[in-house]
Known about the structure:
Blueprint: E1 3-8, H1 12-22, E2 27-34, H2 39-47, E3 50-52, H3 58-63, H4 72-77, E4 81-84, H5 90-102, E5 105-108, E6 119-121, H6 123-126, E7 135-138, H7 141-156, E8 159-169, E9 185-186, H8 195-199, E10 208-215, E11 221-229, H9 235-243, E12 248-251, H10 260-270, E13 279-282, E14 287-289, E15 292-299, H11 306-316, H12 322-333
Parallel strand pairs: 1-2, 1-4, 2-3, 4-5, 5-7, 6-7, 8-10, 12-13
Antiparallel strand pairs: 8-11, 9-10, 11-15, 13-15, 14-15
Helix pairs in contact: 1-11, 11-12
The chain binds nicotinamide-adenine-dinucleotide.
Residues 8-14, 33, 35, 53-54, 85-88, 90, 94, 109-112, 140-141, 172, 301-302, 305 line the site of nicotinamide-adenine-dinucleotide (NAD).
Keywords: Cytoplasm, Glycolysis, NAD, NADP, Oxidoreductase
Catalytic activity: D-glyceraldehyde 3-phosphate + phosphate + NAD(+) = (2R)-3-phospho-glyceroyl phosphate + NADH + H(+); D-glyceraldehyde 3-phosphate + phosphate + NADP(+) = (2R)-3-phospho-glyceroyl phosphate + NADPH + H(+)
Active site: 141
Amino acid sequence: xxxxxxxxxxxxxxxxxxxxxxxxxxxxxxxxxxxxxxxxxxxxxxxxxxxxxxxxxxxxxxxxxxxxxxxxxxxxxxxxxxxxxxxxxxxxxxxxxxxxxxxxxxxxxxxxxxxxxxxxxxxxxxxxxxxxxxxxxxxxxxxxxxxxxxxxxxxxxxxxxxxxxxxxxxxxxxxxxxxxxxxxxxxxxxxxxxxxxxxxxxxxxxxxxxxxxxxxxxxxxxxxxxxxxxxxxxxxxxxxxxxxxxxxxxxxxxxxxxxxxxxxxxxxxxxxxxxxxxxxxxxxxxxxxxxxxxxxxxxxxxxxxxxxxxxxxxxxxxxxxxxxxxxxxxxxxxxxxxx
Length: 339
Ligand code: NAD
């Protein structure tokens, strides 16, 4: 029997999670929701059973001639789990309004506060903590990128304090209501940014401080990390460790990966929607100065959390252990060492 998955909020993350669920042999999409009958709702209705996220808007869908199967409450009654992909903080409202009443398991995204769920999740770092749980929060794109990399360093070397600067894409490509045309915005202007504390919701014992800036780009985030190692490490040893992990892609400026623009150009050849589920780490950026290790990575914000949502579903229903779940997710999404 496949786990029946509902997706509440068919936006940037929701549509990707729906497509990824559809590729698995142990789960299926029983429906997705939209709030308004726009062009995305029309596309969603062609791909999946469509439900209305806000019951008061049913009439709008009927007027627009878009076939719907009911409201969010109908969808929840037909599902085993809901993956909430609604905007920041709306997930917590949906939990109180719908999920708790229906008794359904739920996954939340990184825009929610950590107390929305029993565990903040990253498949590599704490898959086991989500086993059998009812409410899990997949941490944000930046936090997922940081946690994966720090987890790999921490399990293979003795690490001390981590300092990281996040150079963040200002908005996603589809956004036309806000942006930053000509400027670099310290966000927040004072230290620390929320990313360090968020990493600690998954890796509690990591000493980390982060700062963040918004840049006028929509493509990817870039992270610059400085890790104080407890003993000197050779860059080639760090590269060997990262080469073992499929969810980390090592690229080289020498091969032409000179910026996020080139990384995205490569991804356009590789994947639908140019989705990069992997941390993209520049080989040449891995450098040591005494006990200080430096690494630069790029994160495709629209895609990186997608495999984590699939693994979270498997953990919550005890469908597979960590290695087996990650292997299946990687295989179905095409996550493999390309270089
Ligand atoms: P989005 O705006 O692209 O999509 C949200 C969708 O939810 C929209 O289709 C919207 O119409 C719908 N919605 C609005 N109100 C709703 C409600 N009450 N119930 C159900 N659906 C509702 O947002 P997104 O970028 O996909 O973000 C979703 C979540 O994922 C947020 O928590 C965000 O922080 C997190 N996240 C986003 C990114 C990213 O870069 N886009 C990366 C990682 C995590």
